[in-house]
Amino acid sequence: MKNRVRELRLAHGLTQQELGRKVGVSRQTINAVENGRFDPSVHLAFRLARVFQLPIEEVFLFDVDPDPQEGTQQGP
User: Taking a C-beta distance cutoff of 8 angstroms, is the pair 76, 36 a contact?
Assistant: First the structure.
């Protein structure tokens, strides 16, 4: 899942350590979220959005890939 965590963290003048403290996770977790290696739980996503005072959908960009099988007919 794509996100704007790094951009928003920097705009708010926070280090990864400081942001982690505010939301109750480690610096390593913040780093993993920023680099797309870890999708946060719903609770963590809401806590991050709250820190940035934004709706969750402005922090996390839900990229829905269309199913390539959807809409195709499979014959016998």
Answer: no
> pLDDT value at position 68?
55
Query: Residue 72 has what DSSP assignment?
Result: -
Stated as kind and residue range, the H or E segment containing 61 is strand 60-61
Q: Using one digit for the tens of pLDDT, what is the confidence trace for 14-38?
A: 999 999 999 999 999 999 999 999 9
Q: Which residue type does 32 have?
A: A
- Tokens of residue 41, six digits: 């739980």
CATH code at 2-61 = 1.10.260.40
Please answer whether residues 67 and 8 qualify as being in contact, where contact means their C-beta atoms are separated by less than 8 angstroms.
no
